Every structure is written in C-alpha cells, then in structure tokens.
Amino acid sequence: MSELFGEIDPPQRLLMGPGPVNAHPRVLRAMAADMLGQFDPEFTTYMNETMALYRRVFMTENRWTFLIDGTARAAIEAALVSLVEPGATVLIVRSGRFGLLLSEIVERCGGQIAAVDADWGEVVPMERIAEAIAMAKPQVVACVHGDTSTTMAQPLEGLGELCRAHGAYSYVDATATLGGMAVPVDAWGADIVTAGLQKCMGGPPGSAPITISDRAAEFIFARRHVEKGLAQGEAAGARPRIASNYFDLAMVMDYWSEKRLNHHTEATSMLYGARECARIVLAEGLEPRFARHAAAGRAMTAGLRAMGLTVYGDDAHRMTNVTGVLIPDGVDGERVRTRMREDFEIEIGTAFGPLKGKVWRIGAMGYNARKHKVLITLGALEAVLRAEGFALPAGEAVAAAMESFAP
C-alpha cells in the first residue's frame, strides 16, 4: 500500500532571509476563502478591485495594472517575452545575479544583449546608462530596482524620460522592493514594472503584480495573436507574434479587460491573497510602511556592526529591507545558518555567485520588518557566533538596534 505521508505541519520558523518571508495572517485567511468561477461577476469584481488597489501600490495611473499567475519570475518573463522581438537590442543594467537573469531571459527571447555593468555591491550611475543607451540604441532597457543578491538598490530617477528620448521601452524588476521601498512608476516614467508578493508585500510566492504604460501596451497589442480556439475574426497584430502563449501579455490583458478572453483560469486563491496584501499595505499607508522598513534595516545594520561584523556593499545605495554581512574569517557560514534554524527556528540567507560562502543576507521585510523580530534575530545570531567561538561584545547588538529604533 502506498504511503500517504503525514498532514503538512511546518515548523513555526521566522524567515529573516532575502525572501520569502512569513505571510501576514490576514493574507493566509483570505486565501482560505471558497472558489468562484473565473467569470462569475463577484470574481471579476475582485479582479477589478485588485487592479485598482495595485495602481495605488505601484503609485501609477496605468490602466493595465494586474496580476500574472506564477512567482515573480513569471511576470519578468511575461514582460520581456512580450516586449523583446527576435533580433531586438536590449540594454541590461547589471550589478548582481538578477541583472544577469534578465540577460538569460532576453537571450531565450531571441534578443541581442548590450550591457552596462557594475561590480557586485555597487550600482550603475545614470550617466553611464545614458551613454550606453546612446551607443547601443536599444529597443528595450531592462534593470533591477533592488537586487537581493547584492542588497543594493539601483537609482532609477530619470530612466523613463531617458528611454523615451531614444525611442526605447523601459522595464524594471521591483520584485524585492514593492511594498517596502518607494516604487513610483509614474515618476520614474517606467513602461513596465513587475514584482512579487513574497517579500515586502508580505504574501506567499505564486502571484506577480505587473503594471504597463499605455505606450508599452500599444506596442504589445501590435504583437497580438489570439489563439485559434478562441479567435472570432480578430485581426492579428502587425508585429511578430509573442513567442509564449501563457506569458502573452496581449492575451492576458484581454483576459483582465472587459473582453474577458478565456486565456487561462485565474489562480483564485492567489488573487484573494494578492488583493489582501495590497489592502494591508494601503491601510498602513505607503510612507509609514516605507519608514517602517527603513527603520528595521537601520537597526539590523547597527546591530550587525555592533557585533564587529562588516556590512557588505555601498551604504549610500543599500536596500532598506535586506542587509548583506560578510562572514567572519574562520567561521563556517553554513554551520551558523544551520544552528540559527535548528536552535532558534530562524532562517537567514546565503549568497550566490562570487559572494557564495562569503556573505549572509538578512532580511527584515513585510510582516517581519518589526522591532521584536529584528532584536530576536540579532540576539540569536550573537548567541550562535559566540557558541562557534567567534569573539564579540556580549549584548551590544541588541542594545545598538534598540538605540537605533528609539525615537
């Protein structure tokens, strides 16, 4: 007889890595609501409400603001496969793992890569981006707002205006920053911005908010091709067909419009969760929420430095919600992470690529960007490091963090 295994009963672990983080209980409760048919008027009302809520979260007036079913990477792929035509030049701003990921996706879309790079732990000045745009003459400029692999936040003021002046479309991956740092889409002038729920939005992975300018929507609709089983005589777009069916934004937008094209079955429970994430964010207020994340990040940094640890990267451009810290010489970084998990039920992150084995990444975002969770994490890390034989001043980390939190 086949084993049925046990009922899922995960440990009550505090997720203080670079994401995912613990989901807000209200989000989990919303996701337990019953199913509705995807074209029920009650459900399409929830869809319209979700669009309206995320316009405010993205700080935009864009009509085309909705959800892609899948993790944050689903929205990244949908944006790029719908924007990048075969042979098109795409300028990618790269200074970490996730800028390199954009290159990987663009190559698979048949695009030609031009890149403007910075070392990991740095950002690319807008002047260098402007020079690269003038030289490469790209169709699309793609970048990451907050790259959790390096914990750096790329400045984006003026990017949209710069791209428009050269006839390019701009794409921004804001997976790790939406809901925790300002993502002012209209102020940036960005054409497409995508995100996820599992970081600052305080939800689970599985649904990806996206917002699209009218200018970019017009371009995407010029690539429209309604699948044959759904077509009713619509004229195909004049530009090359989008290479993916599932991630074809022209059809997905028709699904989220009054047309209600039967492109896919909406992930009902994830829409409930995404809707509740946005309600929680907006009820708190964007500016207070950004301030809460910034305070948690400052306190985490102060506590780590009080332990004698070296914080990674450029202070001027550090993300507020994820902090990188160099693993001290002689300390087994993975053993520390294991003891944090097994002894304290706290998860902190490892690193990728050139930083693998050299850096821990510690997050304080969404539901976890709170004073007591920062203090608990710092106290646990101090205890583990002392148990591993690393000499550090006792109690200073928590004291420094508390001082940082003090009004």
In a few lines, what is going on in this structure?
This protein is α/β, with parallel strands linked by helices and 407 residues long. The protein is 40% helix and 14% strand. Helix 4 links the parallel strand 3 (89-94) and strand 4 (112-117).
Q: Please name the fourth-level CATH homologous superfamily of the largest domain.
A: Type I PLP-dependent aspartate aminotransferase-like (Major domain)
Q: Overall 3D geometry? A: globular
The assigned CATH architecture of the largest domain is: 3-Layer(aba) Sandwich
Mean pLDDT: 96
Which fold name fills CATH's third level, the topology of the largest domain? Answer: Aspartate Aminotransferase, domain 2
Give the oligomeric state.
Answer: single chain
The portion of residues assigned to helices is 40-55%
Note poorly predicted spans.
none
How many separate domains make up the residues? 2
- Judged by helices, strands and strand pairing, the structural class is alpha/beta
User: How are the strands of the largest sheet arranged?
Assistant: 2-10-9-8-5-3-4
| Rg from Cα | 22 Å
State the CATH class of the largest domain: Alpha Beta
Proportion of β residues? Answer: 5-15%
The largest β sheet comes out as:
7 strands, mixed
Secondary structure tally: strands = 13
Termini separation (Å)? 62 Å
Count of separate DSSP helical elements: 14
